[in-house]
Amino acid sequence: MQYKNNGGTIMSFRKILFLLLLLAANLLHGQSVKVTVSGLLKDGKTGTALTYANIVVKAKADQRFVTGTISDMEGRFKLADMASGEYQLEISLVGYQKKNQALNIGTLNPFLDLGELALTEDSQTLSTVNIVGQSNDGLSTKMDKQTYNLSNNVAQSGGSVLQAMQNLPGVTIQDGKIQLRGNDKVAVLVDGKQNAMTGFGSQTSLDNIPASAIERIEVINNPSSKYDANGNAGIINIIYKKNKQEGFNGKVGLTTGLGALWVRRENLPEIRPQYQATPKINPSLSLNYRKNKLNTFLQADWLYTQTLNRNEFATRTYDDGTIINQQVKRNRTTTYSTVKTGIDWNPDEQNSLTVSTYFNREKILDRGDIPYFNADLSNRLRLWQFLEDEVKYTVTGSAAYQHKFKQPGHLLNAGLNYTWHREDEKYFFTNMMPTFTGEDAFKLLSDEHVIDFNLDYIKPLKQGRIELGTKVRRRSIPTNMQFFPGLNSPIDVNAGGWANYKETIPAVYASYVFENKDVEVEAGLRYEYVKVQYDVNPNHNTYKSDGYDYFQPFPNLRFAYKINERNKLSAFFNRRVDRPNEVDIRIFPKYDEPELLKVGNPTLRPQFTNTMELGYRLQWNKGNIYASLYHKMINATITRIATAVPGSTILYNIFQNAGKSYNSGSEVVLQQEVAPWYSFNTSFAIYQNKINAFSITNQYPVPTTYNVGEEKITSGNAKLNNIFKLKGQTQIQLSGVYLAKDIIPQGTIGARFSMDLGVKKQIQKGKGELFLNGNDILNTLRLDKRIVGNGFVLASKDYLETQVFRLGYSYKF
Whose CB among 62, 118, 462, 491 lies 3.0–4.6 Å from 44's, allowing a Cys bridge? Predict the structure, then answer.
């Protein structure tokens, strides 16, 4: 398949992909996690503690010294920062026989307790103890989590978190939403917690969060029971920067850029111009002061950007022969301010307290034009112009307490989080018809309040650990919609009023981890009780108050067999749930596009998913590969369905439970350092999405039944990231992404391809950094969709802004 720009063929996607395969890809470095092993020495006869015993660790292969320590007054010892490998542990004390023990460092637990070790004059049988660690690459050897440091993502420096994610293996971006393995039911966490900024399920703000504020991103495909059960596709955890160096230090940066450098497709007649040469500016500041027992931190970002947020040309063809051509053009101006600050207090070695606050203000101004024409564009049927003035505020307060028992890794954690999120939207419309012009408006005000309390307990064992915990959430979202109709208004004033969403979720979980030389086992169970109540205005013309509740188990199991030091096989199983977001059940129609209305559905129910996966990992010198096969079985699938009301050309797009669906596929991630100056990362995925035949009834504005046949498609994607480390502390990154044709509700989305390029150079003795990058440098990324409904076919092409060039500088002090 080929894409054309201004009538000319740029090049075949497959040819570009082939060229990129020859180039290879960038290795995204992961976060190294070392292992701490501890134990307690006692006299084998009396049981008294043995103080000042010598503990020495040697490499098993050549018996060279690695590290050592002595036992304290209580007989306890601790060996920190142990890397993976095979070692020999030697324990000696005057008057006691030397004790030898083999140490095989594994890949699962950051802490391990050897328990009580007895020294006597009797001979001891050598035993094997396994210590767990994590590899120093982007793909953790635990195989259920990948960790990526954004400082290595040169091609996306200065962009948003959403843009930075599009180069990560296994992650794709479609219609502004994250997908893992072709599935958009992803739970997004911020610093390990859900946050109103990401909508507790939606991802509305990710394209505005500056990547400069983020330290790393974790991708968790098979979450354990300690995580909330929602998000059947997996979890994305966004970790903000926080420095803990001694004294006063920080980082300041400035990024600027331009997008939409030329018009990719000319407007339909008689509408306002598209945004061009759209400016971007992002200053950022990170400060940290650490002295003695107190650490104070501050992270602040301000983002100003203009974007051609949408530029979609569509044709609707109805069974009666009616054809409507339209364009949806949306010029967007966004200002995004973020401040995160807090303190870490460590009164002693056993206790710590972190108190932090987060404030965010996001202001969006959308100026849109939607002209509607007949088949040959000779007659304008309607011109709909709108101004959206939206402000969102998010304030979060968090307190986290940790108690460290004397045994390393033996922890008690407690946390309390409160979030307030306000959504204040004002829409102003001008409805230009052939015989009149009307002025319409509406105002939406929504306040969200969320309180979370969690308590977690972790106990290391000789060959693993146990984790226990509980969490309670209380959430409420009162919403009010007011309509202000003008002359001959198309607005449904009886669909307004108030609504109140209330959610209560208590949960408990238990998890057990075991590892020896040959196997790894992780088994967990989470029980959640969920009660959702949705109260609506009793005068609403369609919907009434509704809700649901359930009390269900969510198990997870992972079993791994270590064939040898370099080869490992794993099997996973988990059960998860996706609850409808509040905006998915919100009863008010949204009029930013008057002939394709989005309306919520309060009768929407959760979808439940069972997932099975087989994985294989092979490691070699400076490289590794991970391959997986997975199958997801989804019940009560949530999907948006568009229907036409008889006698009208208006389409109503409403979420429904579509019955059973399946997602099966395979994914391969390969990483390799070829030479000190060149390394690559590449991933390939192929999957099949299938939805069984189903029948639904859209209730708004009048009951309309729609029968859908079985939908099935095989799709996939390929990603290639490469990095070249040149002289003078210079890096060059070239990335390519290819997304094959895929299924969407009631239709398909065409294949897409893009390339990103970035250059970064260290200056000022490593304290300063300059970068220049470009996203979608060939300007090939375009969204082609085809939707088939009850009596209509909609075909569209969106030429939104995807090409952006940025220049930035940062300085560490």
Answer: 118
